[in-house]
Amino acid sequence: MKPSPERAHIGRSDNSAASPSFAKVSRAFSRHSVLPASSPIRLVLVDDHAVLRAGLANVLNFDPGLRVVAEADDGETAIKAWRAQPADVMLLDLSMPGIDGIETLQRLRKEFPEARVLMLTSSEAPEDVRHALAAGARGYVTKTVRRAELVAAIRAVHTGEQVVGQDVARQMAAESATGAVSRREMEVLGLVRQGFTNAEIGRLLGISERTSKAHVGALLVKLQAADRAEAVARGFERGLLKA
Q1: Residues 36, 123: one domain?
Q2: Do 170 and 186 fall within a single domain?
Q3: From CA 220, how far away is CA 192, in angstroms rounded?
């Protein structure tokens, strides 16, 4: 008998902070942790890290209520995989080569409006969460998640619920209340300072040019700047940038 894995171990090797608990999953867990009597939930895994993807598939296939039916390492391949093998839930990374997770989600939902997508990514940036949910994602969790919580999130999304990590939700609430610049926006501001274009920032951060442009726009609003040059100047004034 295989031992039940205590933790999914699906995070990248940056040893980031402890696993977030979930808003809504804490309530939904008891409902969704029981193995369903019906057919397994069919999953498509999308992540450009092959080793991570293989480990995740192993963890999920361990559960008799789940079955990985397809994998992809980029957005274009993910959409083709969904066409060839319709599934119940797609687990989608945010940063990938080619089209990023947000654009992949938008294209998938345009062709398959009923597709249910759970973002599984390293980013806890509130703006990334907002963009994903606005694009149609049913849930957003990070790669530090525990196995049981991930399984519960998948089942919740499968039944039509929306799931957001509790830590991410707190960050979003704090940012909304204070107008604080997020970590991702800090990265973007640093690249704006260096003179990179939106397209170049997108390539450097592994996001689409559209998403990069949205980050720059958010910075202009938060810093009350009329243009990129003024945003950089305001960044120095507020101590966000150092000489």
Answers
A1: yes
A2: no
A3: 11
Verdict on whether the full-model pTM lies above 0.70: no
d(CA 125, CA 5): 28
117-149 residue pLDDT tens:
999 998 877 778 888 988 999 999 988 888 888
Residue 116: CATH number of its domain: 3.40.50.2300
Task: Give, in order, the Cα–Cα distances in Å from 63 to each of 30, 31, 89.
Answer: 16, 16, 15
Task: Write the pLDDT tens digit of every residue in 55-77.
Answer: 999 999 999 999 999 999 999 99
Name the β-bridge partners of 44. Answer: 70, 90
| 168 and 202 fall within a common domain | no
What are the tens digits of pLDDT across the range 15-48? Answer: 333 333 344 444 444 454 444 447 899 999 999 9
Q: How many CB atoms lie within 10 A of CB 101?
A: 30
CA distance 108 to 202: 21
Compute the distance between CA of residue 197 and CA of residue 182 in angstroms, rounded to an integer: 20
